[in-house]
Amino acid sequence: MKYNERIQRLEEIVRMLDTGESELEETLALFEEGKKLLADCSEELAKAEGSLRKLTVEEAEQSNDD
Amino acid sequence: MSDTWRVGKLAHALRDLLRNSQFRNVAVKGELTQYRVAASGHAYFSLKDEDGKMDCVAWRGKAMHFPDGLEDGMEVLIIASVDLYPPQGRVQLQVEQLRASTNIGLLEEMKRKLVDKLEANGSLDLLQRPLPTIPQHVVIVTGADSAALSDMLRIRDERWTDIRCTVIETVVQGKESHSLLPRALRAAYALSPSVVVVGRGGGSPEDLWSFNLEPIIEAILESPVPIVSAVGHESDHLVSDLVADHRAATPTHAMEMVIPIRGDHDIMIDDFSSRLEGGLNRWLSRRKERLHNLKLRLASAPLIGMGKARESLLMLNNILTRLTTSRFNAERQKLQRYSTVLEFTNPHAVLKRGYSMVKGEDGMVIRTAAAAASQSSMKLQFHDGELSVAPLDDD
């Protein structure tokens, strides 16, 4: 699931929790799903972190660390 | 014949004369002929018109700033000084600057042809790929040590200091860029980027011209990921802008498009987190309120309410057994208290203490002696069962 889709789903979940229509089982499932989505978002943010590298064209051509 | 010049001396004297003359840094216009760049990097050519012709030389340091695409036959304008080269006795123009007076027109024509070609082969109809919300690897291709690069890195710093970023420093103008820019782009694609930004700061149309050239355009079209063209200023429109997935008005703007603000996302995640907790807590509060209302109804209509009370007690028990995780312990204790309260108000508990309840033939509770008098038979409800009774005749 992409970051934006996760955010959309989170909006949905929060809305559903707020209406309070769902039964206990479903409510807990929504809550857990929301927690999982937030953890995934945080993980994606963490994964985007790294260093700043400056390469010449030659260095870039030889670089295959990715 | 008092003064006889030695030829070399005359040549030097003439050179001195020229060097002190008005023919310093003059603008000269003419048609370019025999243009060539030597291995040394110096450029040699002649300027001519219908009335005359002069040899010109531009040393490497000057020639490297000449515009691209110079060809014989072009009308050019130079800034030059007249000089004489004594060993050959040749008068020549030493060139400081060269501008093709019809260059822009020619380049525009080339650009138009390229755009026509791209239009014909469908390159301009390609679907724009959206930029990733959280790019896992940003690769920037731009001029080495350029002002544009420092601007871009400043924006990265402001928005998300630690976002993973690779800069490929290359040459972005002049002949060298025609091969180096495509190479830099292809090297960028091999680094598994999630987005590529290619660009440079502002300059003259000639400076930016590489971004209108086919080898560069082809390389941009090859990008496996969304690519942003960020060349020059807002007012500059280049072919690279047409074929890239996104056009940024400036390199700075490109970075604003590509790099998310880390703080915003942290706030959003915290916000969702508290809304989730709040949502669950409110759900629990509503259930407790409902139970509370049941309790009140139970007190006023014990028998009708009894079935419902049982039901809700059962449900409460279900909830309690299911709320086993430590996260809900506090809620669980609160619910347990409600459960105890309900147990206390349960009519069965009252019956156990030795009371009994009188019900009419219709099963309704009889609360008064007057109501009982009208009944032909009644039932006494004990905690362990019922007993049918009839009122004695008073008369």
Description:
The complex is a heterodimer of chains A (66) and B (395). In chain A, 71% of the residues lie in helices and 8% in strands. Chain A is mostly helical. Chain A has one domain. In chain A, helix 1 (3-19) runs antiparallel to helix 2 (24-47). Chain A starts with a helix and ends with a helix. The relative contact order of chain A is 0.12. Chain B is an alpha/beta fold. Chain B folds into four domains: 7-101, Nucleic acid-binding proteins (OB fold (Dihydrolipoamide Acetyltransferase, E2P), Beta Barrel); 107-260, Rossmann fold (3-Layer(aba) Sandwich), CATH 3.40.50.261; 265-348, no CATH class; 356-395, no CATH class. Chain B is 45% helix and 22% strand. In chain B, helix 10 runs parallel beside helix 12 (329-345). The radius of gyration of chain B is 46 Å and the shape is rod-shaped. The chains are: A mainly alpha (66), B alpha/beta (395). The interface between A and B is large, with 39 and 45 residues. Strand 1 (52-56) of chain A pairs parallel with strand 7 of chain B.
Number-wise, the strands of chain B total 13
User: Mean pLDDT of chain A, nearest integer?
Assistant: 89
User: What's the domain count of chain A?
Assistant: 1
Largest sheet of chain B: 5 strands, mixed, barrel
Mean pLDDT of chain B: 86
Morphology call of chain A: rod-shaped
**Rg of chain A, please?**
20 Å
> Which structural class should the secondary elements of chain A be placed in?
mainly alpha
| Count of domains of chain B | 4
Which features characterize this protein?
heterodimer, A: 66 residues, mainly alpha, 3 helices, B: 395 residues, alpha/beta, OB fold (Dihydrolipoamide Acetyltransferase, E2P), Rossmann fold, 4 domains, five-stranded mixed barrel, 14 helices, 22% strand, rod-shaped
